[in-house]
Design brief:
CATH topology of the largest domain: D-amino Acid Aminotransferase, Chain A, domain 1
CATH architecture of the largest domain: 2-Layer Sandwich
Strand content: 25-35%
Shape: globular
Bound molecules: adenosine monophosphate, glycine
Number of strands: 22
């Protein structure tokens, strides 16, 4: 088979790495990919060729043209943007197989109001909320509300559209940012204002063909930039899998209460959801509640989860597209994985790039997998930093403690100017001890 992967992050590197292990696959293209993905050609096992091709994840027509021309048997869309813009519809209309939901189904991530309405209608536990399409009404509401409060832009805002506010003054400033200054453009001119919840957060990712739902292994992301869950929210600074306080049975139950009702609800609405539905859950004292849905693989959860998957990923993805998931199952390595994201100094704010990266081979010789995110080759062929999140270093261990030791040992081999990473991934379980 020929496979096309769309995206350029560590998630796509992990997908390409896993897909390359499938005996069904002859060639993998990635648009636009990254140097780590391009380097997979030279890695064992097998002779599968991996090629990165320039292009934009937003240019849906050009992506479909490429897939048709190269006789791609299956395309996997990594990021949400092309899905929310309707890449699956364009591919389906041209008879091309693509893993991921239609534009209408991708509204579960593209519109927080739509997601909230679906949760309400189909009985999924979530934070109490109100929606607003008018800044003045929102301001009136926040003056009388109890604090803290959470204000969310309705549309896609690159993970930055959530503000937790402590006072009415702060809330009014946020409402002005969204409605008047339009810092998120049209994405912020409709908002959800919801109650503040507390508890550990976990990610439940489930594979679905619109009917059958198969949960993947559980994972916990670390969204804040700095140790002790402080600093601004990021795309994710590290993850581990599985979440040790929940057994498989608990994950099945969580899936039943937070994912399955939405999948069957979407079917009832005439809007079949196929692909990955990823629930960001908070385990509150009053039970699990959904904070948000994503309609794609999480990053860095995917890196931590895929190194534990022993089943071939390709038949699973194909079965989701073809509606035959009930005949499939996922098998997992009974080990723990941990991913630590190495970022550029200043991320998630402004950062410099083009710093040379060294030590990846040494880290991999110690058994870690180093997935590339924001990397590039400079004119002389050296590997340099090229983004906020630069690398996602991933290692396995018998226990969470072992995985942590192994991953930080690998991290210590890698360097680039200004490297910034969390030293406490797993701290909610292992305690606050800081790894070097
Ligand atoms: P989201 O993009 O909706 O997942 O929100 C990003 C982060 O904001 C989450 O991972 C939580 O840490 C936090 N958050 C979102 N909604 C709430 C809420 N209702 N209560 C407390 N924290 C929240
Ligand atoms: N790990 C957070 C995300 O993928 O959105």
């Amino acid at each position: 088979m020929n496979i096309l992967i769309i995206g350029s992050g560590a998630r796509e590197h992990a997908l390409a790495w896993k897909i390359k292990q499938s005996p069904l696959v002859k060639k993998i293209f990635c648009i636009p990919g990254n140097p780590g993905i391009a380097g997979l050609t030279h890695c064992a096992p097998g002779s599968t060729i991996v090629e990165c091709v320039e292009g934009s994840v937003e240019n849906i027509r050009a992506l479909a043209d490429f897939a048709a021309k190269q006789k791609i048997d299956l395309t996997v869309a990594g990021p949400e943007l092309p899905l929310v813009r309707g890449i699956a519809d364009e591919f389906a209309a041209r008879g091309l197989k693509i893993f991921g939901p239609s534009r209408a189904a991708a509204r579960l991530e593209g519109s927080k109001i739509f997601a909230k309405e679906m949760m309400k209608k189909y009985g999924v536990p979530t934070a109490g909320y109100e929606t607003f399409e008018n800044g003045d009404r929102a301001k009136k509401y926040v003056v009388e509300a109890e604090y803290p409060l959470v204000i969310k832009a309705d549309g896609l805002a690159a993970g930055k559209g959530v503000a937790i506010v402590q006072t009415a003054k702060e809330a009014i400033a946020v409402v002005d940012d969204y409605f008047q200054k339009k810092i998120f453009g049209e994405a912020g001119t409709r908002v959800v204002i919801e109650e503040f919840l507390e508890g550990p957060e976990i990610s439940v990712l489930a594979l679905t063909d619109g009917e059958t739902v198969i949960p993947l292994a559980s994972a916990q992301d670390h969204k804040r930039a700095f140790d002790g869950d402080t600093g601004p929210n990021t795309g994710g600074m590290g993850a581990y899998s599985p979440y040790p306080l929940l057994f498989d049975k608990d994950i099945q139950e969580l899936t039943q209460s937070t994912i399955t009702p939405i999948i069957s609800g979407m079917k009832k609405e005439g809007c079949l959801f196929r692909g990955i539905l990823y629930g960001g859950l908070m385990l509150t004292e009053r039970g699990p509640k959904v904070l948000e849905y994503n309609v794609r693989f999480g990053d860095p959860e995917t890196e931590a989860v895929l190194v534990r998957l022993t089943s071939d990923l390709v038949p699973l993805l194909l079965a989701s597209v073809e509606g035959t998931l009930k005949h499939q199952e996922c098998r997992w390595l009974a080990k723990t994985s941990m991913t630590v994201v190495l970022a550029s100094l200043g991320y998630p704010g402004a950062f410099e790039k083009d710093f040379e990266i060294t030590g990846i081979d040494e880290a991999e010789e110690r058994g870690a997998r180093v997935f590339h995110a924001g990397t590039a080759r400079n004119a002389s062929g050296s590997l340099v930093t090229n983004g906020g999140r630069v690398l996602a270093v991933t290692a396995l261990g018998e226990t969470l403690l072992d995985a942590r030791e192994n991953v930080y040992e690998a991290v210590s081999r890698i360097s680039f100017s200004g490297v910034q990473y969390r030293r406490d991934i797993g701290h909610q379980i292992l305690g606050a001890s800081i790894c070097s």
